[in-house]
Amino acid sequence: MNTQNIFQELKWRQVIYDSTPNCESLLKLKNISCYNGFDPTAPSLHIGNLIAIVGLIRFQKFGHSPIALIGGTTGMIGDPSGKNEERNLLSKSDIDHNVEAIQLQLMNILDTKSKNNPVKIINNKDWLENIQLVDFLRDVGKFFSVNSMLAKDSVKGRIDRESGISFTEFTYQLLQAYDYLKLFEKYNCQLQTGGSDQWGNIITGINLISKVLGNKEKLNQPHGIVYPLLTDSSGEKFGKSTGGNITINPAETSPYKFYQFFFNVSDIDVIKYLKIFTNKNYKEIKILEKSTLNEPQKRIAQKELAANLTTLIHGPGGLEKAEGITRALFQGNLINLDSKEILDVLEDSNITEISKNELEGEGVKYSELVVKSKMAKSLSEVRRLVSQGGLFLNDTKIENADKLVTISDLIKGSIILLRRGKKNYTILRIIR
RNA sequence: GCAGGGAUUGGGGAGUGGUUAAACCCAGCAGUCUGUAAAACUGCCGCCCUCGGCUUCACAGGUUCGAAUCCUGUUCCCUGCACCA
What we know:
This protein is of the alpha/beta class and about 425 residues long. It has three domains: about 5-225, Rossmann fold, CATH 3.40.50.620; about 240-330, Orthogonal Bundle (Tyrosyl-Transfer RNA Synthetase); about 335-430, Structural Genomics Hypothetical 15.5 Kd Protein In mrcA-pckA Intergenic Region, Chain A, CATH 3.10.290. Helix content is about 45%, strand content about 15%. It has helices at about 5-10, 25-30, 50-60, 75, 90-110, 125-130, 135-140, 145-150, 155-160, 165-170, 170-185, 200-215, 255-265, 265-275, 280-295, 300-330, 340-345, 365-370, 380-385; strands spanning about 20, 35-40, 65-70, 120-125, 190-195, 225, 240, 245, 350-355, 365, 390-395, 395, 405, 415-420, 425-430. A six-stranded mixed β-sheet has the order 1-6-5-2-3-4, with helices on both faces. A hairpin with a 2-residue loop joins β11 and β12 (about 395). α11 crosses α12 (about 200-215), α13 (about 255-265) crosses α16 (about 300-330) and α14 (about 265-275) packs antiparallel against α15 (about 280-295). The longest helix has about 30 residues, at about 300-330. The radius of gyration is 26 Å and the shape is elongated. The structure holds one RNA strand of 85 nucleotides.
């Protein structure tokens, strides 16, 4: 399959949930500028944002000029889309902090240096921050009919509920529409992308542009494309993993964990994700599809997916680490490595430090070490796990939670390996 | 402001004086099977020194041999009505 234009490309990858009429003909005919917004509601982007990020990269690849818009100011208000409760406002300083962090992340992932069409990273604070209320109401508010604002799903759903919607959030759609207008004016931005919950906001923006600037000729009209909301085969929202969201911040979600998340994607989902997130072409994906069908236990498709995305987010170095840890944990005899190698390989996993004299003499109860390392919340939990055969010390199953751990249990004199279940490891490192 | 209803273990939601650490569902965790998959099945799912003990049912007091369950006060939430606009 040969994709001529970005629209075709997105289509066969099945990431177009909806798009405005004639969007394709526009994208076929010329290179445009397009944007996708990112909310600074958390200190890190997470893999729910991946589809949008990869989207920007694809547009760039096809010669378009993408803009990543950080909602520094809209984040102060809160988008009611997709929420059924009023949100708590984040403090200004939190938002500032988030904006900075997200900006940095985007800069690392996206190509902002390309000569022809670098990705621009912009903050809507630039035009929203100092806006005058009365001016805004006169210049922008006049174009909005409350009637149609009320009809928006995001608003209607909330009005029907008892909790209602605050004026603040109700106003949100004006701001996002205004963003599109500004970007349209400043950068001739003709396409907004987003999750499917953004459809209403995008259309509102398009309408505002046409009202403010009048009808332009076809080639200059604004458009929108929305991506599907991703769910896995069991209907769960994509990206929710046991133990919290998978973020792209290595301090929160280590490259190893990130890699493992994709490594563990089920056979049913993996091909879909490869299409959505990677650059693999039709042929390559066909091959992987066959492999998943015929020799699923090899997990070739999962490995490709994990490797691809880990590299995108954490770079080749991150991938190397992730693969190293994976090898050590799942194929190797970890305890045969020397402690230095183990630490090296497990650099990113959980490490708890304990002092050597705790182990001297009689030693410490295993159960206490487990709690200390946060592998279990309480001693009760440790006992429970032990009775179910789910806890290990240096890869040996523990039968008695109160077993004493002493210096003789140290691997090569310096570390202890704790394991819970099949996949969770923690290292205890001895400090003086 | 008036009247009524409600706050239970992560979420949902039983429970109206004792046999209730509290039904049931979801989520979660571990195990078996396997392929670090899916499904299925088993066990667990307040804390502890676990055939036992301790602390929990918004908060603070009280009644009682005994309370999540009854009374009083407080806080918060909801639903009507009114007031304001």
